[in-house]
Amino acid sequence: PGAESWINLSFLRTRESIDGVQHQVRNLGDREGHDVKDVPRPTDRLVTMSMFFQDYLRKNENIRMHLNFTVGTSLPFGIPDNNIIFRNPYRFAPYHRVDIGFGFLLWKQEWRHRRPGHFLRFTRNTWASFEVFNLLKVANEASNTWIKAITNVQYAIPNYLTGRRVNLRLKMDF
Questions:
Q1: CA nearest 163: which of 135, 132, 137?
Q2: Rounded CA gap, 46 and 65, in Å?
Q3: According to the model, what pLDDT value does residue 1 have?
Q4: Residue 134, pLDDT score
Q5: Which residues pair with 75 in a beta bridge?
Q6: N or C: which end of the chain has fewer CB atoms below 10 A?
């Protein structure tokens, strides 16, 4: 009681077809592209799965731990400069991260009769927590910065989401 666990599985396929444009894809090693009906939109992440697990100590429910795991298929991207024929032909690496947290119940309303002068008595519940986001320090790609060389060739330089972060939180319910 009081602890929660869940699994979330999402499916999303987003495609686009621009009127008057014959979209094409080019396989690795091909010089010429072949026609396709539609191409992926930038938000075309087919599957995302998240798992959240929370538990507490057997003899002390005031100390809890939670673990969050998220994994998602890759997102498409393409070269810049309004390229609508070969639209979003590439994909970033799949997204994944793990978060962990520990929470400590500092005060709950049921304790008022035992400690009527406690400095947190005006709250229903007060939790202090310590969390580590992106525990495995995965470098998930968010976008690309495109650099054009003198030879007119473009290179994608990845921009990454934040690495590992530590969070201290104080949560008060009134």
A1: 137
A2: 30
A3: 62
A4: 97
A5: none
A6: N
